[in-house]
Amino acid sequence: MSCAPNLIDAHGRTIRYLRISVTDRCDLRCRYCMAEAMTFLPRAKVLSLEEIALIAERFVARGIDKIRLSGGEPLVRRGVAELCQRLGRMVGNGLDELTMTTNATRLRDHAPALADAGIRRINVSLDSLDPATFRYVTRHGDVAQVIDGIAAAREAGIAVKINMVVLKGLNEDQVGDMLDWCGREGHDLSLIETMPLGAIDEDRTDRFVPLTRVFDTLSQRFTLTRDTHRTGGPARYWRVGEHGNRLGLISPLTANFCAGCNRIRLTTEGKLYLCLGHDDHVDLKDALRTGGLAAVDAALDAALPRKPAAHDFRIEAGAAPAVARHMSVTGG
Question: At what angle do helices 80-88 and 107-116 cross, to 10 degrees?
Answer without folding.
Answer: 20
